[in-house]
Amino acid sequence: MKKVAIVTGCNGGIGFATAEKLISEGYFVVGMDIGDEGKITSADFKYVKGDLSKTADRENLVSEALEVTGSINVLVNVAGVAPRVRADLLEMSEESYDFVMGINTKGTLFLTQLVANAMIKNEKVDGIKGYIVNISSMSAYTSSVNRGEYCISKAGASMITKVFADRLAEEGIMVNEIRPGIIATGMTSTVQAKYDALIDGGLLPIKRWGMPEDIAKGVYVLCSGALSYVTGQSIDIDGGFHIQRL
């Protein structure tokens, strides 16, 4: 029987690459996004349309995943949004804050809660009941004053990783996060010229854009069992951006 993984934000970028990677490694993936149809065509994929910020949609996603085999083995929280309009911190609106936090932080928090309660019912295999991987961002610790709500939301996602890792370790559920750097996705396509110049100027020790597949590989390692003694950890997949250099 295949293991079941939930991947949010599965129709684009990191979510799409992660879902495809897990399918290729033998998982059955249940993916959620806001589009009418899923973009992955595989017998081992089930698409659920939904908005992560809505309680009913989160509950429906978990229900649909449990229908596959009766258990959920992996959760990958990928879905995230940037502000619709980048605005200086002193001009940021409450509407923009609520929009970003509702998906990136609140939605991630309460979906994780739902899945954790389902995973606790799993039988342990080699001491493990499940894996949860949160996709946060280099913005969790890097200031961008024209999208402060995004930075705050991703810092919140990092703390979600820590508190759930602490709470769930005794249950055999490992919770970790990946902090992507500059990744070629739809979200970064609007600022490609800016990041091209920064990368050419030496911002990254590894002088290239990251690709969604770089993150997907990291997700697979974290939920493969290879790092079963690791929880509450943040892994930077960022071309070395996090290194403080002189």
Question: Can you describe what's shown?
Answer:
The chain is of the alpha/beta class. Helices cover 39% and strands 15% of the residues. It contains 6 helices and 7 strands. The chain has a 7-stranded parallel sheet with strand order 3-2-1-4-5-6-7, with helices on both faces. Helix 2 runs parallel beside helix 3 and helix 3 packs parallel to helix 4 (148-168). The chain is globular and about 50 Å long. The relative contact order is 0.14.
Summarize the structure.
By secondary structure, the chain is α/β, with parallel strands linked by helices. It is 39% helix and 15% strand.
Topology:
Elements lengths: L3 E5 L4 H12 L3 E6 L11 E5 L5 H15 L4 E4 L16 H26 L10 E6 L12 H21 L4 E8 L11 H9 L11 H12 L10 E4 L9
Parallel strand pairs: 1-2, 1-4, 2-3, 4-5, 5-6, 6-7
Helix pairs in contact: 1-6, 2-3, 3-4
Distance between the termini: 52 Å
Low-confidence stretches: none
User: In angstroms, what is the radius of gyration?
Assistant: 17 Å
The overall strand count is 7
Instruction: Give the strand line-up of the largest sheet.
Output: 3-2-1-4-5-6-7
How confident is the prediction overall: mean pLDDT? Answer: 97
Structural class category: alpha/beta
Q: Helicity level, as a percent range?
A: 25-40%
Strand content: 15-25%
- What is the N-to-C order of secondary-structure elements (H for helix, E for strand)? EHEEHEHEHEHHE
| Count of helical stretches | 6
Could you give a short account of the major beta sheet?
7 strands, parallel
Overall outline: globular
